[in-house]
Amino acid sequence: MLALLNIFVDNMIPVLAIAAVGVVLRRRLHVDPATISRMMFYVFAPALAFDAVYTSDISGSDFLRVYIGTLALMAAVGAIAFLVLRGLQAAASTHQRRQCLRATQISRREFATALVATFVFNGANFGLSIVSFAFGEAALTYAVIIYIAGSTVAWTLGPYVSSSGAASMLKSIQNVLRTPVVYALALALALKAAGIIELPPALSRSSQLLADASIPLMLVLLGLQLGGFRKPDRWRLLLSGTAIRLLLAPLLAIVCASLLGLHGAARSAFILQAGMPTAVLTLILAYEFDTDRDLALNLIMTTTLLSPLSLTVLIYLLQNGVV
User: pLDDT (tens digit, 9 = 90+) per residue, 242-266?
Assistant: First the structure.
Protein backbone atom coordinates (compact mmCIF):
# COMPACT_ATOMS: atom_id res chain seq x y z
CA MET A 1 0.00 0.00 0.00
CA LEU A 2 2.86 2.34 0.86
CA ALA A 3 4.50 1.60 -2.49
CA LEU A 4 1.30 2.58 -4.32
CA LEU A 5 1.08 5.79 -2.29
CA ASN A 6 4.68 6.67 -3.14
CA ILE A 7 4.03 6.08 -6.84
CA PHE A 8 0.93 8.27 -6.69
CA VAL A 9 2.75 11.10 -4.91
CA ASP A 10 5.87 10.94 -7.09
CA ASN A 11 4.19 10.52 -10.49
CA MET A 12 0.61 11.76 -10.26
CA ILE A 13 0.69 14.71 -7.87
CA PRO A 14 3.08 16.79 -10.05
CA VAL A 15 0.85 16.22 -13.09
CA LEU A 16 -2.36 17.03 -11.23
CA ALA A 17 -0.83 20.08 -9.54
CA ILE A 18 0.25 21.66 -12.83
CA ALA A 19 -3.12 20.85 -14.42
CA ALA A 20 -4.82 22.47 -11.43
CA VAL A 21 -2.98 25.69 -12.28
CA GLY A 22 -4.76 25.65 -15.64
CA VAL A 23 -8.14 25.14 -13.96
CA VAL A 24 -7.52 28.15 -11.69
CA LEU A 25 -6.34 30.29 -14.62
CA ARG A 26 -9.56 29.59 -16.51
CA ARG A 27 -11.98 29.99 -13.63
CA ARG A 28 -10.34 32.95 -11.89
CA LEU A 29 -8.63 34.84 -14.70
CA HIS A 30 -10.83 33.58 -17.56
CA VAL A 31 -7.84 32.53 -19.65
CA ASP A 32 -8.96 31.21 -23.03
CA PRO A 33 -7.43 27.80 -23.83
CA ALA A 34 -7.81 28.35 -27.59
CA THR A 35 -4.63 30.44 -27.98
CA ILE A 36 -2.45 28.04 -25.98
CA SER A 37 -3.99 25.13 -27.86
CA ARG A 38 -2.93 26.65 -31.18
CA MET A 39 0.58 27.32 -29.82
CA MET A 40 0.81 23.71 -28.74
CA PHE A 41 -0.50 22.41 -32.06
CA TYR A 42 1.77 24.48 -34.30
CA VAL A 43 4.95 24.99 -32.22
CA PHE A 44 5.51 23.03 -29.02
CA ALA A 45 4.17 19.57 -29.93
CA PRO A 46 6.12 19.48 -33.24
CA ALA A 47 9.28 20.57 -31.41
CA LEU A 48 8.83 17.81 -28.85
CA ALA A 49 8.26 15.18 -31.55
CA PHE A 50 11.30 16.33 -33.52
CA ASP A 51 13.63 16.49 -30.51
CA ALA A 52 12.52 13.15 -29.04
CA VAL A 53 12.90 11.20 -32.29
CA TYR A 54 16.01 12.95 -33.64
CA THR A 55 18.00 12.59 -30.40
CA SER A 56 16.92 8.99 -29.71
CA ASP A 57 18.76 5.77 -30.50
CA ILE A 58 15.63 3.90 -31.57
CA SER A 59 16.12 1.67 -34.59
CA GLY A 60 13.81 1.73 -37.58
CA SER A 61 12.41 -1.71 -36.76
CA ASP A 62 11.60 -0.69 -33.18
CA PHE A 63 9.93 2.47 -34.44
CA LEU A 64 7.73 0.50 -36.85
CA ARG A 65 6.81 -2.11 -34.25
CA VAL A 66 5.67 0.51 -31.76
CA TYR A 67 3.93 2.63 -34.39
CA ILE A 68 2.05 -0.23 -36.07
CA GLY A 69 1.32 -1.83 -32.70
CA THR A 70 -0.35 1.38 -31.54
CA LEU A 71 -2.54 1.46 -34.65
CA ALA A 72 -3.55 -2.17 -34.09
CA LEU A 73 -4.28 -1.57 -30.41
CA MET A 74 -6.50 1.43 -31.12
CA ALA A 75 -8.37 -0.53 -33.78
CA ALA A 76 -8.99 -3.38 -31.31
CA VAL A 77 -10.19 -1.01 -28.59
CA GLY A 78 -12.48 0.75 -31.06
CA ALA A 79 -13.93 -2.54 -32.33
CA ILE A 80 -14.73 -3.79 -28.82
CA ALA A 81 -16.19 -0.41 -27.88
CA PHE A 82 -18.38 -0.51 -30.98
CA LEU A 83 -19.81 -3.90 -29.95
CA VAL A 84 -20.39 -2.75 -26.36
CA LEU A 85 -22.16 0.42 -27.50
CA ARG A 86 -24.28 -1.56 -29.96
CA GLY A 87 -25.30 -3.79 -27.06
CA LEU A 88 -26.23 -0.79 -24.94
CA GLN A 89 -28.12 0.70 -27.86
CA ALA A 90 -30.10 -2.52 -28.39
CA ALA A 91 -30.87 -2.78 -24.67
CA ALA A 92 -31.99 0.85 -24.58
CA SER A 93 -34.27 0.32 -27.59
CA THR A 94 -35.86 -2.73 -25.93
CA HIS A 95 -36.38 -0.81 -22.70
CA GLN A 96 -37.84 2.12 -24.61
CA ARG A 97 -40.40 -0.12 -26.33
CA ARG A 98 -41.43 -1.64 -23.03
CA GLN A 99 -41.53 1.56 -20.99
CA CYS A 100 -42.30 4.10 -23.75
CA LEU A 101 -39.46 6.32 -22.58
CA ARG A 102 -37.51 8.19 -25.20
CA ALA A 103 -34.92 9.22 -22.64
CA THR A 104 -33.45 5.71 -22.58
CA GLN A 105 -32.46 5.78 -26.25
CA ILE A 106 -28.85 6.28 -27.32
CA SER A 107 -28.77 8.78 -30.15
CA ARG A 108 -26.42 8.73 -33.13
CA ARG A 109 -24.58 11.74 -31.70
CA GLU A 110 -24.09 10.05 -28.32
CA PHE A 111 -22.95 6.81 -29.97
CA ALA A 112 -20.34 8.58 -32.12
CA THR A 113 -19.05 10.64 -29.18
CA ALA A 114 -18.72 7.65 -26.85
CA LEU A 115 -17.02 5.54 -29.52
CA VAL A 116 -14.40 8.19 -30.32
CA ALA A 117 -13.76 8.72 -26.60
CA THR A 118 -12.76 5.07 -26.16
CA PHE A 119 -9.97 4.90 -28.74
CA VAL A 120 -8.67 8.50 -28.77
CA PHE A 121 -6.38 8.63 -25.73
CA ASN A 122 -4.54 11.51 -24.10
CA GLY A 123 -1.04 10.45 -25.06
CA ALA A 124 0.22 14.02 -25.16
CA ASN A 125 -0.30 16.38 -22.22
CA PHE A 126 -1.11 13.57 -19.75
CA GLY A 127 0.67 10.54 -21.16
CA LEU A 128 4.05 12.05 -21.96
CA SER A 129 4.35 13.60 -18.51
CA ILE A 130 3.50 10.44 -16.59
CA VAL A 131 5.64 8.14 -18.74
CA SER A 132 8.57 10.52 -18.31
CA PHE A 133 8.18 10.71 -14.53
CA ALA A 134 7.67 6.97 -14.10
CA PHE A 135 10.20 5.50 -16.56
CA GLY A 136 12.57 8.26 -17.68
CA GLU A 137 13.83 9.63 -20.97
CA ALA A 138 14.21 6.27 -22.73
CA ALA A 139 10.53 5.49 -22.28
CA LEU A 140 9.57 9.07 -23.17
CA THR A 141 10.93 8.63 -26.69
CA TYR A 142 8.71 5.59 -27.23
CA ALA A 143 5.80 7.47 -25.65
CA VAL A 144 6.23 10.22 -28.27
CA ILE A 145 6.05 7.63 -31.06
CA ILE A 146 2.87 6.18 -29.53
CA TYR A 147 1.42 9.68 -29.24
CA ILE A 148 2.19 10.35 -32.92
CA ALA A 149 0.63 7.04 -33.98
CA GLY A 150 -2.40 7.81 -31.85
CA SER A 151 -2.68 11.21 -33.50
CA THR A 152 -2.70 9.52 -36.91
CA VAL A 153 -5.78 7.49 -35.94
CA ALA A 154 -7.38 10.39 -34.09
CA TRP A 155 -7.18 12.71 -37.11
CA THR A 156 -8.36 10.09 -39.63
CA LEU A 157 -10.77 7.66 -37.99
CA GLY A 158 -11.84 10.25 -35.40
CA PRO A 159 -13.46 12.67 -37.88
CA TYR A 160 -14.90 9.74 -39.87
CA VAL A 161 -16.63 8.27 -36.81
CA SER A 162 -17.69 11.67 -35.47
CA SER A 163 -19.43 12.46 -38.73
CA SER A 164 -20.99 8.96 -38.77
CA GLY A 165 -19.33 8.27 -42.08
CA ALA A 166 -20.27 11.58 -43.69
CA ALA A 167 -16.64 12.68 -43.93
CA SER A 168 -14.65 10.90 -46.63
CA MET A 169 -11.43 9.09 -45.78
CA LEU A 170 -9.69 11.44 -48.21
CA LYS A 171 -10.85 14.40 -46.12
CA SER A 172 -9.67 12.61 -42.99
CA ILE A 173 -6.23 11.98 -44.50
CA GLN A 174 -6.05 15.65 -45.45
CA ASN A 175 -6.57 16.46 -41.76
CA VAL A 176 -3.46 14.43 -40.94
CA LEU A 177 -1.45 16.20 -43.64
CA ARG A 178 -2.35 19.53 -42.02
CA THR A 179 -0.89 18.38 -38.69
CA PRO A 180 2.58 19.93 -38.06
CA VAL A 181 3.68 17.00 -35.86
CA VAL A 182 3.68 14.76 -38.94
CA TYR A 183 6.21 16.99 -40.70
CA ALA A 184 8.37 17.33 -37.59
CA LEU A 185 8.53 13.55 -37.36
CA ALA A 186 9.32 13.22 -41.06
CA LEU A 187 12.13 15.79 -40.78
CA ALA A 188 13.67 14.01 -37.79
CA LEU A 189 13.59 10.64 -39.55
CA ALA A 190 15.00 12.14 -42.77
CA LEU A 191 17.94 13.72 -40.92
CA LYS A 192 18.70 10.46 -39.12
CA ALA A 193 18.49 8.51 -42.38
CA ALA A 194 20.86 10.98 -44.03
CA GLY A 195 23.41 10.45 -41.27
CA ILE A 196 23.18 14.01 -39.93
CA ILE A 197 23.73 13.27 -36.28
CA GLU A 198 24.33 16.79 -35.01
CA LEU A 199 22.62 20.09 -35.79
CA PRO A 200 24.16 23.54 -35.36
CA PRO A 201 23.87 24.65 -31.70
CA ALA A 202 21.44 27.45 -32.57
CA LEU A 203 18.99 24.91 -34.01
CA SER A 204 19.51 22.07 -31.55
CA ARG A 205 19.23 24.32 -28.50
CA SER A 206 16.11 26.03 -29.85
CA SER A 207 14.34 22.74 -30.48
CA GLN A 208 15.40 21.40 -27.10
CA LEU A 209 14.13 24.50 -25.26
CA LEU A 210 10.78 24.27 -27.01
CA ALA A 211 10.59 20.53 -26.32
CA ASP A 212 11.40 21.03 -22.63
CA ALA A 213 8.66 23.65 -22.33
CA SER A 214 6.04 21.56 -24.10
CA ILE A 215 5.13 19.08 -21.36
CA PRO A 216 4.38 21.60 -18.57
CA LEU A 217 2.51 23.76 -21.07
CA MET A 218 0.48 20.70 -22.15
CA LEU A 219 -0.54 20.12 -18.54
CA VAL A 220 -1.60 23.75 -18.06
CA LEU A 221 -3.61 23.46 -21.27
CA LEU A 222 -5.27 20.30 -19.95
CA GLY A 223 -6.33 22.20 -16.83
CA LEU A 224 -7.64 25.10 -18.90
CA GLN A 225 -9.78 22.73 -20.94
CA LEU A 226 -11.05 20.82 -17.92
CA GLY A 227 -12.02 24.08 -16.26
CA GLY A 228 -15.22 23.99 -18.31
CA PHE A 229 -16.42 20.70 -16.78
CA ARG A 230 -20.15 20.28 -16.17
CA LYS A 231 -22.17 17.93 -13.97
CA PRO A 232 -21.96 14.37 -15.36
CA ASP A 233 -25.00 12.48 -16.64
CA ARG A 234 -25.86 9.49 -18.91
CA TRP A 235 -24.15 7.11 -16.57
CA ARG A 236 -24.35 3.98 -18.74
CA LEU A 237 -22.32 5.60 -21.52
CA LEU A 238 -20.04 7.32 -19.02
CA LEU A 239 -19.22 4.17 -17.06
CA SER A 240 -18.88 2.00 -20.17
CA GLY A 241 -16.56 4.45 -21.90
CA THR A 242 -14.47 4.91 -18.74
CA ALA A 243 -14.10 1.16 -18.18
CA ILE A 244 -13.00 0.57 -21.77
CA ARG A 245 -10.59 3.48 -21.74
CA LEU A 246 -8.92 2.92 -18.36
CA LEU A 247 -9.23 -0.87 -17.82
CA LEU A 248 -9.77 -2.73 -21.07
CA ALA A 249 -7.29 -0.75 -23.19
CA PRO A 250 -4.23 -1.44 -20.98
CA LEU A 251 -5.20 -5.13 -20.72
CA LEU A 252 -5.27 -5.34 -24.52
CA ALA A 253 -1.96 -3.47 -24.60
CA ILE A 254 -0.33 -6.12 -22.41
CA VAL A 255 -1.34 -8.81 -24.89
CA CYS A 256 -0.33 -6.68 -27.87
CA ALA A 257 3.07 -5.83 -26.35
CA SER A 258 3.79 -9.53 -25.86
CA LEU A 259 2.80 -10.33 -29.44
CA LEU A 260 5.05 -7.52 -30.71
CA GLY A 261 7.96 -8.66 -28.56
CA LEU A 262 8.31 -5.30 -26.80
CA HIS A 263 10.58 -5.20 -23.77
CA GLY A 264 11.95 -2.70 -21.28
CA ALA A 265 11.21 0.97 -21.86
CA ALA A 266 9.23 0.29 -25.04
CA ARG A 267 6.90 -2.16 -23.28
CA SER A 268 6.37 0.13 -20.29
CA ALA A 269 5.61 3.16 -22.47
CA PHE A 270 3.27 1.14 -24.73
CA ILE A 271 1.18 -0.30 -21.89
CA LEU A 272 1.12 2.88 -19.81
CA GLN A 273 0.10 5.08 -22.73
CA ALA A 274 -2.75 2.66 -23.47
CA GLY A 275 -4.21 3.38 -20.03
CA MET A 276 -4.37 7.14 -20.46
CA PRO A 277 -7.69 9.00 -20.20
CA THR A 278 -9.76 10.25 -23.12
CA ALA A 279 -8.07 12.97 -25.15
CA VAL A 280 -9.37 16.54 -25.32
CA LEU A 281 -9.42 16.05 -29.10
CA THR A 282 -12.73 14.25 -28.54
CA LEU A 283 -14.27 17.58 -27.58
CA ILE A 284 -12.70 19.33 -30.57
CA LEU A 285 -14.24 16.72 -32.88
CA ALA A 286 -17.58 17.11 -31.11
CA TYR A 287 -17.58 20.84 -31.93
CA GLU A 288 -16.42 20.26 -35.49
CA PHE A 289 -18.92 17.52 -36.37
CA ASP A 290 -21.82 18.45 -34.07
CA THR A 291 -21.75 15.37 -31.85
CA ASP A 292 -22.56 15.48 -28.12
CA ARG A 293 -20.27 18.11 -26.57
CA ASP A 294 -21.46 17.65 -22.99
CA LEU A 295 -20.96 13.89 -23.16
CA ALA A 296 -17.49 14.38 -24.66
CA LEU A 297 -16.49 16.75 -21.86
CA ASN A 298 -17.93 14.42 -19.21
CA LEU A 299 -15.97 11.47 -20.60
CA ILE A 300 -12.78 13.52 -20.72
CA MET A 301 -13.21 14.78 -17.18
CA THR A 302 -14.31 11.47 -15.65
CA THR A 303 -11.50 9.44 -17.19
CA THR A 304 -8.97 12.15 -16.29
CA LEU A 305 -10.06 12.28 -12.65
CA LEU A 306 -10.14 8.49 -12.25
CA SER A 307 -6.99 7.73 -14.25
CA PRO A 308 -4.51 8.64 -11.46
CA LEU A 309 -5.87 5.68 -9.50
CA SER A 310 -5.73 3.16 -12.35
CA LEU A 311 -2.39 4.48 -13.61
CA THR A 312 -0.82 4.27 -10.15
CA VAL A 313 -1.65 0.55 -10.03
CA LEU A 314 -0.46 0.08 -13.60
CA ILE A 315 2.88 1.80 -12.89
CA TYR A 316 3.35 -0.39 -9.81
CA LEU A 317 2.71 -3.55 -11.84
CA LEU A 318 5.09 -2.43 -14.59
CA GLN A 319 7.87 -1.35 -12.24
CA ASN A 320 7.69 -4.68 -10.39
CA GLY A 321 7.59 -6.79 -13.56
CA VAL A 322 4.13 -8.19 -12.90
CA VAL A 323 2.85 -7.33 -16.39
Answer: 999 999 999 999 999 999 999 999 9
Residue 30, pLDDT score:
87
Q: How many other C-beta atoms can be found within 10 angstroms of the C-beta atom of residue 212?
A: 13
Name the residue ranges covered by the structural domains of the chain: 2-314
CA Rg value for the chain = 19
Exposed, middle or buried by CB within 10 Å (0-12, 13-18, 19+), for 104? middle
Dihedral angle, C-alpha 248, 298, 81, 291, nearest 10 °:
-160
What are the DSSP calls for 247-260, one per residue? Answer: IIHHHHHHHHHHHH
pLDDT tens profile 43-58: 888 888 888 778 877 7
* 286 Cβ neighbours under 8 A, 6+ residues apart: 113, 162, 292, 293, 295, 296
Q: What is the pLDDT of residue 81?
A: 95
Q: Which fold has domain 2-314?
A: Na+/H+ antiporter like fold (1.20.1530)
Residue 169 has pLDDT above 70, yes or no: no
